[in-house]
Structures are given as structure tokens and as C-alpha cells.
Amino acid sequence: MQIHRFPYLTVILCILTFVVSLAVNYTISGTLIGKIKVPDLEPFGGYTLEHLVNFELWRLFASQLIHVKQFHMFYNVLSLFALGCLLEPRVGRFVLALVWFLGGSAGTFVSTLTVPALWNLGTGGSQGILALAAVGTVLYASGQLRHKMTAFVLGLVIFPAFVLDIIYAENHLPKLGHVVSFVSGLMIAAIYVRKPSVK
Predict the structure, then answer these.
(1) Which of 6, 1, 3 is closest to 90 using CA atoms?
(2) Which residues are 47's β-sheet partners?
């Protein structure tokens, strides 16, 4: 039986992403949606392996809130809100937070290993969102998530991410960070699906 609860955590994450990303953009460029570069985000949470080795673990969280392109951030916030409204009442705040943070952190970290130095800072919310989309996919396929908007929302989140990767990547393959995040979400969901009584 589905439990209907207000998606407090989803709303908080959306507001944090929106406010922090715009504030950082304004601090760097002087405008809310001015052009900035990936290296500019290092003081605000962008990270490499070196930062993690130095135990700057706060970056794992902060990096998922900041974006180079604010229009991409707007899309991510809308995606997070749509997914969270579907998932949080079903899986609960703890599972939502776990998937968003662990799946997002895993994908963001892997992304730093595939880009040349200076541009290899881990940032952005796409990875955590794709991890959540993976959970939604498993729950939808298993019949545990039956909301009529589920397929539309999942398509809206997953399809553009991987199609744009394939179109714009030099090797025309999905970004490794996106794949890792999605697989991370599938793994967490697999554990969750075996225990459908967990809320």
C-alpha cells in the first residue's frame, strides 16, 4: 500500500540546489546566469581525488548543488522535484537521501577521472538525479510504483541525459559518471525491492 506523505526532503534539496547554484554563479560572474567555467567552482565545492584525500568530504554534498550552466540547473531542479514527488512518499526520506547522496557521489567522483586536469572538478546534480531515476525504474517495472505520471517523468529524466551524452561525447557513448550513478541506483533499488515493506 502506498503511503502519501509530503516530500519535504525533495523540496529542501530543490531549494538548496536552486539557491546555492545561483548564489555561487552570482559570486563568480556578478549575474545569476552569467557564464562561468568549471575551474571557478573549486572554492565552492567542486572536487578532485586530491580534495577527498585531504578529507574535504563536505565537497561530496556541496558539489551536487553547484552547476556551471544555470539553465541545466533549472532542468535538474525540475527533474529532482518530479522524481522526488513520486519516490519520496513511496521509499521515504532516508532511502531518497541515500540514493541521491551515494549515487550522486559515486557518479560525480568517476566523472573526475575521465576529464583532463583543471576541468576535472566534480560538480552538478545530474548524477544524483539519474540514481533516483534508476530507483524509479526498478519500482515501476516491479509494479511498486503505479502513479500514472511515472513513465513520463522517468522518460523526461533518463532519455535526454543519455541521448545528449551520445550526441555530444567524442566517443558517442554515455558519460561514465552517468552510467555509474544509474547502476548505483539500480543496486540500491534491488535491495529495497526485496524488502517492499520498508517505507
Answers:
(1) 3
(2) 122
Residue 198: phi, psi to the nearest 5? -70, 135
Contact in structure between 124 and 80 (CB atoms under 8 Å): no
Q: Model pTM?
A: 0.92
Residue 198: per-residue pLDDT: 45
Question: Rounded to whole angstroms, what are the CA distances from 95 to 10, 136, 198?
Answer: 12, 12, 10
Q: Cell for 133? A: 531515476
Outline where the chain has alpha helix (H).
8-29, 49-53, 58-62, 70-91, 93-98, 104-112, 126-141, 150-168, 176-193
Segment 65-111, tens digit of pLDDT: 999 999 999 999 999 999 999 999 999 999 999 999 999 999 999 99
What are the tens digits of pLDDT across the range 135-159? 999 999 998 888 889 999 999 999 9
Which residue, among 33, 39, 100, has the nearest Cα to 72 in the 3D structure? Answer: 33
Q: Which of 143, 166, 163, 145 is nearest to 155 (CA)?
A: 163
What pLDDT, on a 0 to 100 scale, did the predictor assign at position 194? 61
HSE-CB of 119 using CA atoms within 13 angstroms: 4
Asked if the model's pLDDT at residue 195 lies above 70, the reply is no
DSSP-assigned letter for residue 47:
B
